[in-house]
Structures are given as C-alpha cells and as structure tokens.
Amino acid sequence: MIVSSKNPKKKWTPLQETRNFIKQVKDDFFFTGAVLPSSKYLARAICSNMKGHRGPWNILEVGPGTGAITREIAKTMHKDDTLTAIEINQSFADHLQTDIDTVKDYEKARDRIKVVVGRLEDLVGENLYDCIISGLPMNNFDSEMVTRIFEVFRRLIKPGAPLSYYEYFAIRDLKYPFVKKSEKQRLKGITEVVGEEIRKHQIKSRRVWLNVPPAVVRTLVLKKV
Predict the structure, then answer these.
(1) pLDDT band at 185 (very low <50, low <70, confident <90, very high)
(2) DSSP class of residue 40?
(3) How far is residue 85's CA from residue 114's CA, in Å, rounded to a whole number?
C-alpha cells in the first residue's frame, strides 16, 4: 500500500538525522543497506543528469532514506520539475517529510515534492518518469528481487530516460572470499544480473571516494524487453 507521509512537527538537525539513520540500520539493515547517510559528494554525482537545458521532468527517487540525496535533488530541480520519493520505512518517510516542510534547501521545490510510503513495485502506470534515482541496497537482495527491481524500472521510466543508482565500490568482491557457500551463490547471482544490465545499458559511471564506504554511481538507459 502507498500512503502519503505528513509529519511536520519536529525539526531535524544533521546530528539527529545521523542518529535516526543509524537506529534504522540497526532495526532493519535489509532495507537500509548503508552504515551512514550518503555524502554530499555522492548526492551531487548522482544528480548530475538533472543539470543542463531540458524540459520539465517528472522525477522518481527510490529509497531516499533520511533524504541526503533528496536535498540535492531539490536544489537541482528546475522550476517545473516534480519529484516523487518512495520510501518503505515509515520512520525515514516521516523524517524526510519533516525536512521538506522545514529545511531551507527544499524551499523552492517543496510544493512539487511528494513523499509516499510503500514498495517500488506498488507504483502503478508505465512510462511515467523522465529520471529515476535509486538508493536501493541491491547487495542486500537476491538475484530474483534485483531482476524484479529492474523490471519495474523499465515499466516506470520513459524510453531513453536516465536511471542512476549507486553501489559501494567492489563490496561483493571484497565479501566473497569470507562468506559461506550459500552467500557466495547469492552474491554471484546479483553480480550476474547487475553485470548484464551494466554491459547492455550503462552510459557512464563515476567513482565517489568521499563517501563511507566509497561508492560508484552508474547511469543506465534501459531498453524495453
């Protein structure tokens, strides 16, 4: 189920954001998949496709967490852009909505940003978005779920539009020698699915060392199957 998130009563500080993020990591690492909020350098890198001359965009952010990347999206949005941020974690969604309602970075765009609580696959429609920015922790899922995620991306995104996501640099390769056989199989399956998408559809990538952990931002233009 998808519901809007409105909870403007609290005002959040960066320290409170980090504390809340760490608490949610402890409670639900499967859907969080990070140890700290994304850095501003990662946020700038993943939003680079939004810059330059273009018409109005309908933007989708998937898995915004506490909004480290959402703030950069808001600052980069053109005057007629709209943004939907879909987050499965209610606490993160409430936090993000509070930020949107109160933080100056959102001032010029807050009336064009909608936060919804739910799963990516619950979004209905086809060819809706001019840009998708994803923070989903692919390395936490199995290959079947990663395949489904890309299928939903294909359904939702407009032909020729950019999909940008990030993953932590070489994390699967670093983990592989130290895990059990079943985990090796899971990591291998993810690598095969993601690797195929990268080989066929990636148009650019950028490493971001100033993040914890370091990350690589990938931009793909997906072809309909």
Answers:
(1) very high
(2) H
(3) 6
